């Protein structure tokens, strides 16, 4: 929304004393899912929004997992970032809306996340569109010269 | 106008890729607390289904619920819901007007008999034959009964439709009631809130579209996935409540440090809603996080539940009149009983027989 | 009635009814007491009755010598229960706000975890006192319905408050409503049972002191 970013708002979070980080338990779950992937090829997904994470926990988890070789930016009604972490097979998927706000966040344990793949239906639509373009080009070619 | 396209065909015709739709479904599964793997299932299932016919009835309302849904911070992602449904009737969003609109509604009801979804916002006034809110000459009551007859399910959106809301508040001049007070023979989901969180409305509809069923409901007909916890249960300021650190005014040191807002009137402990987790405006914030106590807007009769700025434990109705009357009547009763007791005492004293020492010495005397 | 409806009624009409009956009963009892009066003491007063009377109201808060040895449970339990009950009632922040809405002023409260501990100890003490009333043959013989009713209406607010505080039970809103209703029950029962001692204790102590003082006893 235009104009809102000009309002000088500073978010101050109150210090949370005595709360326990969820990250060690999360890492164990990721380990279990990755072991499953390696053994049987079954992929898993963890919804980070469904967990009672403390402020800073997601940053801590991301830092522990590190960065990998793949960092893909998808434009689908807002940005989506698909990043392989430093642990191969463990991907971090962040969905944002058109205003750049995160609407969903997942840790996916898989060989390649669904969001990166082209859907067969989209491929069919793409083929139809390509054939249209080719038909146009052929038609132009015929009318030239 | 109802059409026979599948959702997938509609998406293709609007140039929306299946990848984008998968992103929408992933967001929905996260919101509905469904297993994350359900995203692909939801996307595939929805793409194959015919667009669900939805009739939206707006009664005695302020249009805030529609505004919440359509002004949601990411109109593009949320609006994908409108691609998955066929919104056959909606006062604010439809292009048609007048008789054409009413005909469209009746046509949709006939074409999709037994299968269309009805969404209702606003309360239904009953007083004086329901004359206080009419559409095209029909009272809301008649339109609701007529439209609900062939519906698969009804979603009551907003506190007005679920509990009567603001019009129902004391003295309820129009005789406003909730949807569930009128319709007794159809499954009804209550999605209260003034307004409800947009993504909650979307989530409930998405659940019905994908799984064909309504989500699990609590005793007040609300989806447990969104209304199972109270604000207090999930409030990030709970540590301050537990430690007894309360803000006393809106501007004091406690308020600036983000302390608990109980003393300023927060109704969080008795309010069931998803504000503390799902939050508002695309997850930006919710009232307590912005420093304002919870109003309790998703609970019945929250308008009559005492001041928004007095603690939950405070009394809601004045006591002085009752107290005054009670003291007066009590004093009168006390005087009456007291005089009777005194009279009894005197009567008992008069019946005392005089006994002398001689009488007693004679043994076995009076 | 649903939880929210019951809570609304308890906070509004229920409280009005309870306070009305409470005040009606209180005033009726006191006016009757005053009208019944006492026989005029025809002897010549040896000293003022006022000072000793007032002093006795305070001094009887301390136990008579030998009480601990005679009835340790009643002695200790009595203090623990009364102080605990008053502490949870007057120093728990939500209660202070309830009283503020009636009186127009409030006061600082105790930390909630402390109230929790005090409440639990008070509940346990009440149960212990009831068990003693039951198991001791003399006390059982002397006990009447009024005694058990008084115990119950005092116990229910403490128990329901503890249940609500800890979010036990099905639905917090319903538990809170039941807690407030139990307090309203206590209010309407007070004037018609021995629970009137919460007001008459001062009168009784006054008279004991005043009578002795008038006779010239140094109190």
Task: Write up what this structure looks like.
The complex is a heterotrimer of chains A (145), B (366) and C (219). Chain A is of the alpha+beta class. In chain A, 35% of the residues lie in helices and 24% in strands. The model of chain A has no long low-confidence stretch (mean pLDDT 85). Chain B has helices spanning 7-13, 18-31, 38-48, 64-70, 75-78, 80-84, 98-111, 127-130, 140-148, 158-163, 165-168, 198-211, 224-227, 231-234, 238-243, 253-256, 320-350, 357-361; strands at residues 52-58, 85-89, 116-121, 124-125, 134-135, 138-139, 151-157, 176-177, 188-191. In chain B, strand 5 and strand 6 (138-139) form a beta hairpin. The longest helix of chain B has 31 residues, at 320-350. Chain C has a single domain, classed as Up-down Bundle (Fumarate Reductase Cytochrome B subunit), CATH 1.20.950. Chain C has helices at residues 3-36, 50-59, 67-70, 72-91, 93-103, 112-135, 137-142, 145-165, 172-189, 197-214. The chains are: A alpha+beta (145), B alpha/beta (366), C mainly alpha (219). Chains B and C meet through helix 15 and helix 17 of B and helix 1, helix 5 and helix 9 of C.
């Amino acid at each position: 929304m235009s104009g809102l970013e000009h309002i000088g708002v500073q978010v101050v979070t109150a210090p949370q004393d005595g709360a326990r980080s969820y990250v060690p338990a999360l890492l164990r779950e990721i380990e279990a899912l990755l072991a499953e992937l390696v053994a049987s090829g079954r992929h898993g997904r963890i919804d980070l929004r469904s967990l009672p994470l403390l402020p800073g926990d997601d940053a801590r988890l991301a830092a522990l997992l590190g960065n990998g070789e793949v960092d893909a930016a998808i434009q689908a009604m807002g940005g989506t970032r698909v990043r392989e972490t430093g642990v191969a097979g463990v991907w971090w998927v962040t969905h944002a809306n058109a205003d750049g706000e995160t609407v969903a966040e997942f840790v996916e344990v898989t060989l390649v996340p669904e969001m990166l793949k082209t859907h067969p239906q989209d491929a069919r639509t793409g083929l139809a569109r390509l054939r249209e373009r080719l038909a146009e080009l052929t038609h132009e070619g015929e009318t030239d010269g | 106008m109802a059409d026979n396209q599948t959702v997938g065909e509609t998406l293709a015709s609007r140039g929306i890729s299946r990848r984008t739709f998968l992103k929408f479904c992933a967001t929905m599964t996260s919101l509905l607390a469904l297993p994350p793997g359900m995203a692909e299932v939801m996307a595939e299932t929805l793409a194959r289904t015919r667009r669900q016919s939805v009739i939206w009835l707006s009664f005695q309302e302020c249009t805030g619920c529609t505004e919440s849904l359509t002004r949601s911070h990411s109109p593009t992602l949320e609006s994908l819901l409108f691609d998955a449904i066929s919104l056959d009737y909606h006062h604010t969003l439809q292009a048609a007007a007048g008789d054409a609109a009413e005909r469209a509604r009746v046509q949709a009801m006939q074409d999709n008999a037994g299968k269309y979804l009805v969404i209702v916002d606003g309360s239904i006034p009953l007083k004086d034959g329901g004359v206080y809110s009419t559409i095209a000459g029909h009272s809301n009551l008649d339109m609701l009964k007529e439209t609900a007859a062939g519906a698969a399910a009804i979603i009551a959106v907003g506190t007005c439709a679920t509990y009567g809301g603001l019009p129902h508040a004391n003295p309820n001049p129009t005789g406003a009631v909730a949807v569930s007070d009128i319709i007794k023979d159809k499954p009804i989901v209550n999605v209260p809130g003034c307004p409800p969180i947009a993504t909650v409305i979307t989530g409930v509809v998405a659940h019905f579209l994908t799984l064909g069923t309504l989500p699990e409901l609590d005793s007040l007909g609300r989806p447990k996935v969104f209304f199972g916890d109270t604000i207090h249960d999930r409030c990030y300021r709970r540590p301050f409540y537990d430690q007894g650190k309360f803000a006393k005014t809106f501007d004091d040191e406690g308020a600036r440090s983000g302390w608990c807002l109980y003393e300023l009137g927060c109704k969080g402990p008795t309010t069931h809603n998803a504000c503390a987790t799902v939050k508002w405006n695309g997850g930006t914030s919710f009232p307590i996080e912005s420093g304002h106590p919870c109003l309790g807007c998703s609970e019945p009769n929250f308008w009559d539940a005492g001041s928004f700025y007095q603690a939950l434990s405070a009394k809601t109705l004045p006591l002085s009149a009752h107290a005054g009357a009670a003291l007066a009547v009590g004093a009168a009763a006390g005087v009456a009983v007291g005089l009777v007791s005194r009279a009894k005492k005197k009567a008992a004293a008069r019946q005392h027989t005089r006994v002398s020492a001689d009488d007693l010495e004679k043994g076995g005397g009076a | 009635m649903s939880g929210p409806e019951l809570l609304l009624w308890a906070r509004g009409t229920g409280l009005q009814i309870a306070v009305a009956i409470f005040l009606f009963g209180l005033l009726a009892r006191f006016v009757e007491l005053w009208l019944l009066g006492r026989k005029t003491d025809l002897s010549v007063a040896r000293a003022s009755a006022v000072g000793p009377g007032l002093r006795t109201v305070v001094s009887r808060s301390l136990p008579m010598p030998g009480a601990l040895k005679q009835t340790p449970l009643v002695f200790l339990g009595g203090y623990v229960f009364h102080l605990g009950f008053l502490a949870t009632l007057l120093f728990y922040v939500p209660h202070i706000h309830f009283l503020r809405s009636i009186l127009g002023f409030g006061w600082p409260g105790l930390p909630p975890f402390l109230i929790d501990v005090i409440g639990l100890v008070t509940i346990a003490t009440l149960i212990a006192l009831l068990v003693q009333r039951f198991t001791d043959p003399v006390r059982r013989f002397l006990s009447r319905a009024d005694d058990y009713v008084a115990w119950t209406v005092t116990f229910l607010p403490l128990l329901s408050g503890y249940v609500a505080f800890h979010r036990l039970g099905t639905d917090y809103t319903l538990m809170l409503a039941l807690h407030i209703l139990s307090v309203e029950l206590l209010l309407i029962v007070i004037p018609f049972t021995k629970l009137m001692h919460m007001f008459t204790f001062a009168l009784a102590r006054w008279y004991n002191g005043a009578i002795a003082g008038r006779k010239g006893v140094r109190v």
